[in-house]
Amino acid sequence: MTIENNTQTIDHRQLGTAGPIVTSPGLGAMSMSGAYGPTSDAEGISAIHSYLDDGGNLIDTGDFYGAGHNEMLIGRALAERSRDEVVLSVKFGAVLAPDGSFIGFDGSPDAVRNSLSYSLRRLGTDHVDIYRPARLDPNVPIEETVGTIAELVEAGYVRSIGLSEVGAETIRRAAAVAPISDLQIEYSLLTRSIESNGILAACRDLGISITAYGALAKGLFAGKTGGNRAMFPRFQGENLAHNESIVSALGRVASAKGITLPQLAIAWVAAQGEDIVPVVGSRTVDQVRATMSSTEVALSSDDLAAINDVLADSEVRGDRYPSALMAQLDSER
């Protein structure tokens, strides 16, 4: 479904068989709380307003982004907006030390309820539209975590249940407990493992959508390689040099079409199916506008073939996270 805006056509897609209708692309808010370097609250609020003014409605956050800062920022940005204007997707479960480092994940029933209580207060709302564990808690059966969220759906505090970075078996176990609207997972031109490891097939078999983060490969497609990105193996040494050669080849495909590489990358994710919605991290008005400009791009069969030719010649090098974080991904097992 598409809706005409003042400047562009906004694509709307339903998450799952009974989840919310959201705009494609969605807005990832993590970088507004310092994930990739300093920013300002005023800048973040302006970016959120720009996204909404352009017709977007899906905002993704996590209660641990900036240790609650991100939710408070979004709450301030939405204070004078209609609640019905926004679909809020919230992740929970990450446990932080005072220095901001990850201690682990808690998906226990009490943690689920407690986390939501604080999120509702920080966001300034009486419900969230999608609530999901950020990662699988290895000590708590997914059935318990999802079952507790289902109780919160029944109580009216949550509208839909989502998952994040879990494998096919976990997806099927969760879906046996309650309807799942979408799986949030990394999916991009450089990260296509869900196509071969059974995750995408499981989601489609169960009528679960994909909200795909990482369309810009953590900034690689936008020419950003510095700062905190140095922690990621794909941005290190020979891996980076090799991966930049792939980016350059894809850039030539984009140039031949008269678009930017970020536009190509976002449009490619969106073109992989009506059940896939790219969620693109942005922290400034200019970045939001660049993201939303991808809705003007239609990739032809020839364009997709040219992209596939580039990707067939070389594979990305390096894991998408450091080894300690990779070990926490049920989707990688």
Automatic annotation (TrEMBL):
Keyword Manganese: no
Record has Oxidoreductase as a keyword: yes
Domain NADP-dependent oxidoreductase: start-end pairs: 26-310
Database matches in Pfam families: Aldo_ket_red
Keywords: Oxidoreductase
Chain coiled-coil ranges: none
Gene3D superfamilies xref list: NADP-dependent oxidoreductase domain
Protein name (database record): Aryl-alcohol dehydrogenase-like predicted oxidoreductase
Species annotation: Brevibacterium epidermidis
